[in-house]
Structures are given as structure tokens and as C-alpha cells.
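User: Here's a protein and a ligand (NDP). What would the complex look like?
Assistant: Let me lay out the input and then the predicted complex.
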Amino acid sequence: MAKIINGKKIAQEIIQELVVEVQGFRDIHNTIPGLAVVLVGEDPSSEVYVRNKIKRASEVGIHSTKHMLPIASSQVELIETIQSLNNNPAVHGILVQLPLPKHIDEKAVIEAIHPDKDVDGFHPINVGALVAGTATLKPCTPYGCMLLLKSIHPDLSGKLAVVVGRSNIVGKPMASMLLQADCSVITVHSRSHNVEQLCSQADIIVAAVGRPNMINSGWIKRGATVIDVGINVVNIDGKRKLVGDVDFNDIELWADAITPVPGGVGPMTIACLMKNTLTAARNQVSNK
Ligand code: NDP
């Protein structure tokens, strides 16, 4: 039976450590780390994510502010909001909740965030630093996946990792971080051939696709570690249920360790956002 990697518990431990670290930072610098969360429109899932982020921030002693813009806001208005947050010394981290409405260019918005305040780690300067191995602000979801992997394998050196998915927010940064940890890395995507066969050789699989239960025991080498990033809503017997990209029940007997959905990667993403906000505050205080 596979070991269940309990992301909820590990995230809670990180939050408890952060409570102490944030208090230490506040005492030494007489400064409260500040996180600004910007939301455009009223997407119910985004509102839940924003609420959870603000709740966590308050738990660890980070001051958060919420900036709600109507769905009809223009790109210029959104960028003006970001610029005023860039210029506000009480704000150390800025997070713009994605996805944005279709009329707004996501890339332009990400580039408007000052790289020092980019707690999502999506700005091209931080992406470049990640690839160069010098990043201090790393994209939260893959950062959380790395912490989960390291809880099982403190030394990842030489392991063959297959990342399924190549998005800018999960797949690509995940592959960079695994490479940085001395894994051999293969990234597969919708145009790849022999995805199943490539996965079946992997010591580590990270699934970030968005297809319910796509990966089953036929794809897994016995003893592999499987990190399931996917969050998919499915209807089972008339009830809404969250499932990952991995068929958890099917691979449980094959894998060495797996993350559940929910309770795996999800809670780690928010914990890593809090880590990044403290890091951003530390960087900005030391650059003064
Ligand atoms: P995207 O839709 O941006 O990317 C999905 C990737 O999967 C693409 O690179 C796509 O390839 C690839 N893909 C699609 N079909 C296949 C296939 N049949 N075989 C191999 N690769 C395939 O999604 P995200 O990266 O944003 O998110 C992925 C999942 O993770 C989603 O379920 C999302 O909800 C979840 N998620 C969870 C988070 C958390 O905190 N737990 C945070 C972020 C995301 P191509 O590039 O060729 O189109």
C-alpha cells in the first residue's frame, strides 16, 4: 500500500513555523509583512481561493488587503491598481488572482507587478531566476510539490522525474525545480508521443493536466512516487466530488507514495504563498 503524503498536515506544520518566523521578522524590523490580493470579477472559485489566502495570511501574522475590481474593469485600470501597490511600502507581496477576464492580457498584468513583490513567481525576471537556479520567489504550486517530494525523498539526486503538463504556472517551473534538485527530467504534454510509456519509467511523476483520473496503475512503475496537482470537479451519483489527474484507488497498490486530492498539493500552494510573502518582505527590508 502506498504511503499517503499528507499535504494538509505538512502545510499546517509550515504555517506553524511561519507564525514564529513572521513574529521574529515583525520584532526585528518593526514591519508587518503585507500581502495585497487583487481579484477582477466575481468568479466563485476565485473568491474561495482569495478568501482562503486571506485567512491563512491572518493566521501567520501577515497583513492582507483585498482589492476587488468589477469584471468590466479595463486592463489600464487593473495595471494602475498594481502600480499603486508597487509604490506602497506597506505591501511586500502582490497576487493577482488568475484567471483574468478574457479582455485583459494576463502577460501584461504579470509584467506590471514589481518582480520583488511577485509572490506568485510568474514575472519573467523571476522565471529567468528560477531557470538560472537563483530564484527566491518560486511559483507556489511547484514549490509546494517540491516540499512534499522532499518529505519523502530528502535527496532527489539521480531520480527520473516525468512532469505531465507544461503550463507556465505548474509544469514548466516544476521541471526547472526538479532539474535544480539533480533529477533527470522529462516533460510531456498534449503533443507528446508515448506518454504512458515514458511515465512507466519514472521514479517520480508529477501530474498537472486537468483530466480526471487520467493516470492509472498501467502508467506507473512499481514503487514510484506520484504527486497529483490536478483539481477536477466530477459528478458521481449526482454528487459533486473533487478528483485529481491520477486514479488514486487504482494506483494505491503500485506506488510507493502518493498525494491525495483534496488534501495534497492544494494546501501546500497557500502555505508556499505565505512563505514567499515573508521572503519578499525580507528581501525588501534588506534592499532598503
Ligand atoms: P493547463 O491547462 O494550463 O495545462 C495543462 C497541461 O496539460 C498542458 O501543458 C497540456 O498540454 C497538458 N495536457 C493536456 N492533455 C494532455 C494529455 N492527454 N497528455 C499529456 N499532457 C496533456 O493547466 P494548469 O497547469 O494550470 O493546471 C493543471 C491542473 O492542476 C488543473 O487541474 C488545475 O486545476 C490544477 N492546479 C492545481 C493547483 C493546486 O494548488 N493544487 C494550482 C494550479 C493548478 P499542451 O501544453 O500541449 O496543451
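Summary: Residues 30-115 form a domain with the Rossmann fold fold (CATH 3.40.50.10860).
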